[in-house]
Design brief:
9-stranded mixed sheet; mainly beta; disordered N terminus; globular
């Protein structure tokens, strides 16, 4: 997921690696890397495709990292973030042939993963990692660009604010606030931190964002403050925070019982109330570096299974070969609703019960010549989960039995660098760092 960072490994030590010449990610969460040999393909190598049809491609979005969607009445618009900044495409009329209509040019921006939008105010929030613009994690500048796309043909930067974190920026509390986390800690941050936690930014006035001075989501890794990678908010409003040490969920508004403090209190973005979650079992994710997560709730959601409230998450992890690389994990939240994940320590660790896992290693359609096999972003609709696996492409899984996820389709072009897939209006849009955006239709 990044050009320069350290990778947690199966033995729970840290190793180093790099982004190969194709632009593939180097490792899971650190800073320095060693060269890795790029995979060599023969001319005309078609890759592998099954159960899915490629209906379109947006090559001018090369360097894409993330995508999102906005509606303007009957008009359907896609925003794509990446090393170029932000590009805007109109999908109206022909969603398989996006039409470029606007751009904010920020060459060498990093990293813009999981770029989020405020659908009501038509805002896009771009996260600036300290490694952007040739910076580094030691003393590089990080922050947030707030982009106005109320006129999608003329997107403009409304404001920029420096934030002590900057790997990902996510909306909470209906995008009135932002939570920003990662990457590895800066030199001027506490020496005992394993990575950057979360800083809260008030964007109720998007022209004048206000960063809360004190970070939150501390002591997340068995009592140690560590790298927060991403935040996903479920349909009930719970913000699920993924990173080194597992996944923990918080209420950010409303009155709730705080299981850690043992009393009811009102949740706010800068003083959230713990809900559930904790460390993922080492048997499922040896590195315990959880990249992102999803908690399905509401009518028709596939979250409940035989009395278990399920949490889907990915481990991002790279080691030599595919066998130990990061996997999709499915865990049960049962037993974590009383603050257990906040009281975990090295001597008395708490871990979620593992229900199932899935790895691309050895699966049909995989490229045996590549060892870029880590799990990355995914999207879930009903019982079909679509997930990016970098050079191993985009995989479609049937998770109706969470103990045994089953691959039903795959799309792995020879030059794949799949970072993030998105279900949208019956299609899957894949942000591919090499290819731009691939537009897929599931046929299986």
């Amino acid at each position: 997921m990044r050009r320069w960072w350290l990778r947690p490994v199966v033995a729970l030590t840290t190793v180093v690696a790099t982004l190969v010449a194709t632009g593939l990610p180097a490792g899971a969460c650190g800073e320095d890397d060693k060269p890795a040999a790029p995979v060599r393909h023969t001319a005309g190598d078609p890759g592998a495709v099954k159960g899915v049809r490629a209906v379109g491609n947006v090559p001018d979005a090369q360097g894409a990292i993330s995508a999102n969607f906005l509606q303007y009445g009957r008009r359907d618009v896609m925003v794509v973030s990446g090393e170029f900044g932000l590009k805007v495409y109109d999908l109206t009329g022909n969603p398989a042939a996006p039409k470029a209509i606007g751009q904010v040019s920020l060459p060498d921006l990093w990293e813009t993963e999981d770029t989020e939008v405020d659908a009501r105010r038509k805002l896009v929030f771009l996260s600036r990692d300290p490694r952007a613009f040739d910076g580094n994690t030691h003393n590089g500048e990080s922050g947030i660009y707030v982009v106005d796309v109320s006129r999608p043909e003329s997107p403009k930067i409304l404001s920029y604010v420096r934030v002590p974190a900057g790997h990902t920026t996510s909306c909470v509390d209906d995008c009135r606030y932002l939570w920003t986390g990662g990457p590895a800690k800066a030199d001027d941050q506490p020496a005992d931190w394993g990575g950057r936690p979360v800083w809260v930014t008030d964007v109720r006035d998007p022209r004048h964002p206000k960063v809360h001075p004190d970070p939150i989501e501390l002591a997340r890794n068995d009592g140690k403050t560590d790298y927060v990678h991403d935040v996903q908010v479920d349909a009930a409003g719970v913000a699920w925070v993924s990173g080194r040490g597992g996944v923990r969920g918080y209420w950010t508004s409303g009155l709730h019982r705080d299981p850690v403090q043992g009393r009811f209190r009102r949740a706010t973005a800068d003083a959230p109330v713990p809900y559930a979650g904790g460390g993922v079992a080492e048997t499922a994710a040896p590195s315990r570096f959880m990249h992102n997560s999803f908690h399905p709730v509401g009518p028709g959601a596939d979250g409940a299974w035989r009395g278990h409230d399920l949490l889907y998450a990915t481990e991002e992890n790279f080691v030599d070969g595919c066998a130990g690389d990061g996997v999709l994990t499915i865990s049960s939240l049962v037993g974590s609703y009383h603050g257990e994940g906040w009281r975990s320590t090295p001597s008395a660790p708490f871990r979620l019960q593992s229900i199932g896992t899935w790895s691309v290693e050895g699966q049909e359609g995989s490229d045996p010549a590549s060892d870029d096999c880590s799990a990355h972003y995914f999207d879930l609709r009903g019982h079909v989960l679509v997930q990016s696996f970098y050079a191993q492409g985009t995989r479609f899984l049937d998770v109706s039995d969470p103990t045994a996820p089953r691959q039903i389709a795959y799309f792995r072009p020879a030059d794949a660098s799949s970072w993030a897939p998105y279900w949208h209006d019956g299609y899957v849009y894949v942000a591919d760092h090499t290819r731009g955006v691939d537009i897929l239709k599931l046929t299986a």
